[in-house]
Design goal:
560 residues; alpha+beta; seven-stranded antiparallel sheet; six-stranded antiparallel barrel; 13 helices
Length: 560
């Protein structure tokens, strides 16, 4: 049995050894097998004041004699992009920051931009975006064009009607009353969602936003820091369904908040899609892999550490409430793994209170961040193994939930959100398209709007003369040149696509071939015209569905 102490600044010291006891049989040991080089380039410009946010949960309960809101818990949170990066590698929300700061000839660190004419680049990027949108009849999600089953759930919804980012945090920080086995305080059990409110803070160096920050990744950042902006969150978190310590929540007035956050240097992080994970051949866990643990250390005790609540202490000065966070970054080296949890040594020693919910960042291969290397998360901080653990090889190690488990939860949360946003019939059709991986064309509709029987598509046309004019269907199958060309095409597909994708593409080609033959047999006409007509149907259902969603959302917006 492995106990993991939460690093959220919530649990009292006497309870830490009891927190989150979970069986982790089969942990893969990597101690003694590290292959990494300590001299590997670790970027010093990845700072927690850009990747992380300070999360505060306040509460007020009249039955506890409280007149004002008081702090319930504090920890770390971060922004996660809903859409994948654009084909150029840029975060879908970085364009907002680019457009708001493009008029300046200096970057956020006060250094001169490479170009003295940034507006030219802005116009070029805008033109690229407009050209990309010309291929869609609806407002598209960001990222490269993909097949329906490769989209994330919220990408089926127009961008005007769903969030652009998730705020990721620990479930036991967002709603501590849902975790009674961690907290023995009786008063906490009468607290519910209606009694709390949430906020995020952006912190910056006292020297200002344009000051140069080089991070050694050895623990608490050097210097003095202060909060520079505060943002409210909607009180509607979504928690992991099976008690994994994860939750997502969302910004109030997201568009305005995001613009301000981008100006302050906050960078939303990226999580690979489920399709990316399925087709990634790299190892899930590699001994000695370097990662970054980032977030905020919490200095002040939380209300959940107290056995009783005596009401609001009005004599406490508000400025005392500001000196509770300090940015923290530590280099980590992976040591052990199980399906639900990875362990890592940390350069700065055991993670302090407050890091729970913070991002574990994958170090870019180039050693630098930028458009070519969007920042991917490797996981979310769960806590630490107690320093007095029986196994000294893992005592004090950081524990985090790996990224593929985060993706499973985000997909779960986004599916719930999509179901609440759009009509139930449209949602069912989205589910149908998303989960039908082996049929890229989706359902085909007849002129009367009814779904055509897929068995009808399998019927071969009866005219042998017609079949003879279609590749591979005549009496003679001796077509060596066509066969070679076909094999070359298939080989090329295998180089760029997964086996499942190749099968889906070939299935689409075969289905369209049969449909062309049927139309020529029944209606006649020019072969090229018929082929173009059939191919247009391939994505008609997707476009039709997206238009219906947009129409419904626009109608709801006008009514409200």
């Amino acid at each position: 049995m492995l106990s993991v102490a939460r690093s959220s600044g919530i649990a009292s010291a006497r309870n830490r050894s009891l927190l989150y006891t979970k069986c982790c049989r089969g942990l893969s040991s990597a101690v003694g097998n590290h292959t990494s080089n300590e001299n590997d380039e670790i970027p010093t410009n990845i700072s927690p004041i850009h990747t992380s946010l300070a999360l505060s949960v306040h509460f007020r309960h009249p039955d506890l004699g409280m007149k004002d809101y008081e702090i319930l818990s504090r920890a770390t949170a971060f922004l996660l992009d809903v859409d994948p990066p654009n084909p150029e590698g840029e975060s879908p929300n970085q364009s907002t920051a680019t457009s708001t700061s493009s008029s300046s000839t200096h970057n956020s660190r006060g250094l001169v931009q490479k170009s003295a004419f940034p507006h030219l680049k802005e116009n070029r990027d805008l033109r690229k975006e407009l050209l990309r949108k010309q291929h869609y009849s609806y407002d598209p999600a960001s990222g490269p064009p993909r097949l329906p089953h490769q989209l994330n759930w919220l990408e089926f919804c127009p961008t005007n009607f769903r969030p652009k980012v998730h705020v990721v945090a620990s479930s036991h920080v967002i709603s501590p009353w849902l975790w009674p086995k961690y907290y023995g305080q009786d008063w906490l059990q009468i607290v519910t969602q209606e009694h709390v409110r949430y906020s995020l803070e952006v912190w910056s160096s006292n020297e200002g936003l344009k000051s140069s920050v080089n991070v050694d990744h050895d623990g608490k950042l050097k210097g003095e820091y202060k909060p520079v902006a505060k943002f409210a969150l909607n009180p509607y978190p979504i928690h992991h369904p099976t008690e994994m310590d994860l939750a997502v929540i969302h910004l109030k007035q997201e568009e305005e908040s995001l613009k301000q956050m981008m100006k302050l240097g906050i960078q939303p992080l990226n999580l690979p899609t489920a399709h990316d994970f399925e087709n990634d051949d790299s190892p899930v866990f590699e001994a000695g892999e370097k990662v970054l643990f980032q977030g905020f250390e919490v200095y002040e005790a939380n209300m959940t550490d107290q056995e009783t609540v005596s009401g609001t202490d009005n004599s406490k000065k508000e400025e005392d409430d500001e000196r509770v966070f300090h940015p923290y970054s530590s280099l980590g080296s992976l040591t052990f793994a199980s399906p639900d949890r990875f362990l890592s040594q940390t350069k700065g020693g055991p993670l302090p209170e407050g890091l729970c919910g913070g991002p574990v960042i994958q170090i870019p291969a180039s050693g630098k961040i930028g458009k070519e290397s969007p920042m991917n998360i490797r996981g979310v901080v769960e806590g630490i193994v107690p320093t007095n653990h029986d196994n000294p090889q893992i005592a004090g190690h950081a524990s985090f939930i790996p990224s593929y488990r985060i993706r499973e939860f985000v997909d779960f949360a986004e599916k719930i959100m999509l179901e609440q946003i759009i009509d139930s019939d449209l949602f069912k059709r989205c589910v149908d398209m998303k989960e039908r991986k082996n049929n890229t064309r989706g359902t085909v509709y007849g002129d009367d709007g009814n779904i055509l029987d897929s068995a009808d598509d399998d019927d071969e046309p009866a005219d042998p003369k017609l079949l003879a004019g279609i590749e591979g269907t005549g009496d003679s199958y001796n077509t060596p040149q066509l066969d070679r060309e076909f094999q070359d095409i298939v080989s090329s597909l295998h180089e760029k696509h997964s086996p499942e994708e190749v099968d889906a593409i070939l299935a689409t080609v075969e289905r369209e071939r049969k449909e062309v033959a049927e139309i020529l047999e029944k209606e006649g006409g020019d072969v090229d015209d018929v082929i173009e007509r059939v191919r247009r149907k391939t994505y008609e259902e997707k476009e039709k569905l997206m238009k219906e969603i947009m129409d419904e959302m626009t109608g709801q917006s006008k009514k409200s």
